Amino acid sequence: MADAARLEIRQPHAGMPPLDMSGEQISFFEFWPQKYFYTPMCAYWLWLTIKHGFRFTLPTISNPLFPMGGWIGDSKAAVFDQAGEHARHFIAPWAVFTRTKTSTAAEAVQTARQAGLAFPFIAKPDLGCRGAGVRRVRTEQELQTYLDGFPPGERIVFQTLIDHEAEAGIFYIRKPSEQRGRITSVTLKYFPYVFGDGKSTLRHLIEHDPRAGRLQHIYLPRHKDRLDWIVPQGQPFRIAYAGSHSRGTIFRNGNHLITEAMTDAFDRIAKDVKEFYFGRFDVRFGTIEDLQAGQNFKIVEINGAGAEATHIWDRKTTLPEAYRALMQQYKAMWEIGAENARRGYKPARLADLIAAYRHETKLWAEYPLTE
Q: The whole model's pTM is what?
C-alpha cells in the first residue's frame, strides 16, 4: 500500500492558475443524467437537420477523413494517423494493440516498446469517450490485468505518460473556406485531491470532502482496495486520474486566457491534421504561461465532432449559458458539414451512424474501470 500511495505524491495543480474552491461546489445541473441535459439540444439538432435539407448526418463530414467525422465511433489512432510531421511533434507518442482472446502482456509490451514507450504508460480504448477505460499501467502484471478486463477483438491505445500535472481542453473551429481558425473554448482541468491528516482513512477523507463527498459514487469504487488506508499527515492523494468531468475531474472556464499566440499554435497544428476543422485538443502543459505562449505542451487526444466545449461544466456556468454555447457549437458543426458536402464529401448513412453508436455504447460497459 505504501508503494502504491507513494506514486500519488506530487504538487497538486502545478502550473495551473489557483483553484477557487469557495462557495458552491457543483452547479445544480452539472451531473444531471445525459438524457435529461441533452433533451433540449435534440430539438435544436432537428431544427439544424431541417435547415440543412433534412441531412441529419452532416456532422459526419465536419472532419471528413475522421471515422464518422469523430461524431460517433471515432478511432483515436485513426485520428492521430491523419497528423503530419509538425502536428505529430506535439502528440504524445502512442501505439495500438489489438486485444485477442490469447493476448499476453509480453506481446503488448513489445508493441509499446516499438513505439518508444516504457512503463509507466497510459492504456485506453481506441473507441471511447468521457474517459472510459483510461488507466495507468506501471508493470507487466498491471498490463495483463488491464488486458484480461478488455473486450476481445477491440483495440487499445498505449500512450506515453506525460508528467505535466496541468491539463486543458482547447476547442478549435475553422470552416474549410477560412484561412485561419479560432479557439472557441478553453477548459482548465483540475484533478481532485484529498489531503491526509494522519488519522483518517481515504474513505473518510472522500466522504467528508465538500465536493468529493457529493460525488463519492464516482470516487469510492475506483479506490476500493485502499479505502481503509490512513493517508499520512499533509500528503495529497489524487482521487481521479482521467481528465474527464464525468469521471470526477474539476472543470473551470479558461476562455479569458486565450491569446493570439495560443491560437496561432493550435491553428498551425490543426492545419497539419488532414481535413480537421472542428473538435477539441486535450493537452498536458507545463504552466499556464506556456500554454498561452503556445509552447511546452503535449496533445493526448484529438476529439472530432463528438467533442464539446467543456467549459460549460464550470460550476458558475448557468444552464442558459451552457445551452447557448452548445447551440453555437452545433451550428458551426452543421455549417462545416454542409460546406464539406459542397466540396464533394458524402455524409454517412443514418443506419451506419446508429450501428456505430450501438457498438460504442455496448463497449462502454465492457471496458476496465477508469482510474
A: 0.94
Q: Which three cell numbers stand for residue 144?
A: 495483463
Do residues 336 and 287 both lie within one domain? Answer: yes
* H-helix segments, 59-139: 76-80, 85-90, 105-114
Residue 313 lies in a domain: yes
pLDDT in tens, 216-275: 999 999 999 999 999 999 999 999 988 889 889 999 999 999 999 999 999 999 999 999
In the chain, the amino acid numbered 151 is P
Evaluate whether residue 335 is within a structural domain.
yes
Per-residue pLDDT tens over the stretch 92-117: 999 999 999 999 999 999 999 999 99
Q: Is residue 320 part of a domain?
A: yes
Residues 97 and 87 in one domain: no
Q: How many helices (H) and strands (E) does the chain have?
A: 13, 11
Query: 78 and 97: one domain?
Result: no
Residue type present at position 226: R
What's residue 72's pLDDT?
86
Does one domain contain both 84 and 171?
yes
Say if residues 238 and 5 touch (Cβ distance below 8 Å). Answer: no
User: Which amino acid appears at position 87 of this protein?
Assistant: A
Whole-angstrom distance, CA of residue 54 vs CA of residue 64: 19
Q: How many residues does the chain have?
A: 371
Beta sheet of 155-160, edge-to-edge order: 94-98, 155-160, 121-125, 135-137
Q: How many domains does one find in the chain?
A: 2
In a domain, 261, yes or no: yes
Calculate the alpha carbon distances from 335 to 15, 58, 221, 276 in Å.
37, 9, 42, 14
- Grid cell, residue 61, equals 463530414
Range of the domain at 155: 93-161
C-alpha cell recorded at residue 187: 477548459
Q: Are 281 and 302 in contact (CB under 8 A)?
A: yes
Is residue 116 classed as helix, strand or coil in its secondary structure? coil
